[in-house]
């Protein structure tokens, strides 16, 4: 599903699951849900880099996103640019493993994304 804007939520946890830092914002653009998740990941990696947090595991609710990041073949279209940025960030924040997880496991990031949309709406 494509949209003119999308909500981004990123959560960084330590190895015990404790939340270290969170981020949420509303981004404007016309992207698929998968590209939106990739952009959210890129923003989360920039946050990890800013706070100098090592990253070892990245979870998504979409198996397509995890597959794109784990693929060693060249990608095409919008996905290619974002995935290339992410793979460079992987080198800067640690040896990252990507996997698909149930939405319930990523509920904090999804709730933050929804909060970003609500707060922007209230601001307008």
Task: Describe how the helices and strands are arranged.
Blueprint: E1 3-13, E2 19-31, H1 33-50, E3 57-60, H2 63-70, H3 78-93, E4 97-100, H4 107-123
Parallel strand pairs: 3-4
Antiparallel strand pairs: 1-2
Characteristics of this structure?
two-stranded parallel ribbon; 124 residues; globular; Nucleotidyltransferase, domain 5; alpha+beta
Quick structural overview:
The chain is 48% helix and 26% strand.
Task: Describe the overall structure.
The chain is α+β, with helices and mostly antiparallel strands and 124 residues long. Helix content is 48%, strand content 26%. The protein has helices spanning 33-50, 63-70, 78-93, 107-123, and strands at residues 3-13, 19-31, 57-60, 97-100. α1 (33-50) runs parallel beside α3. It is globular and about 35 Å long.
Radius of gyration: 14 Å
Average pLDDT figure: 75
Low-confidence runs: 119-124
Percent of residues in beta strands? 25-35%
Task: Indicate the structural class.
Answer: alpha+beta
Count of alpha and pi helical runs: 4
Largest sheet: 2 strands, antiparallel
The strand line-up of the biggest sheet is 1-2
CATH homologous group name = Ribonuclease H-like superfamily/Ribonuclease H
Distance between the termini: 25 Å
Gross morphology is globular
The CATH class is Alpha Beta
GO molecular function: nucleic acid binding; RNA-DNA hybrid ribonuclease activity
Protein name: RNase H type-1 domain-containing protein
Organism: Dipteronia sinensis
Domain RNase H type-1: 7-115
């Amino acid at each position: 599903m494509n949209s003119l804007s999308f909500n981004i939520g990123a959560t960084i946890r330590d190895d015990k699951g404790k939340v270290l830092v969170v981020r949420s914002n509303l981004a404007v653009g016309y992207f698929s849900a998968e590209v939106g998740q990739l952009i959210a990941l890129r923003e989360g990696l920039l946050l990890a880099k800013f706070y100098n947090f090592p990253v070892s595991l990245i979870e998504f609710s979409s198996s397509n996103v995890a597959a794109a990041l784990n693929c060693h073949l060249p990608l095409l279209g919008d996905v290619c640019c974002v995935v290339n940025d992410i793979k460079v960030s992987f080198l800067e924040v640690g040896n990252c493993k990507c996997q698909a997880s149930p939405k319930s496991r990523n509920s904090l990031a999804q709730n933050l994304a929804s909060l970003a949309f609500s707060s922007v709406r209230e601001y307008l």
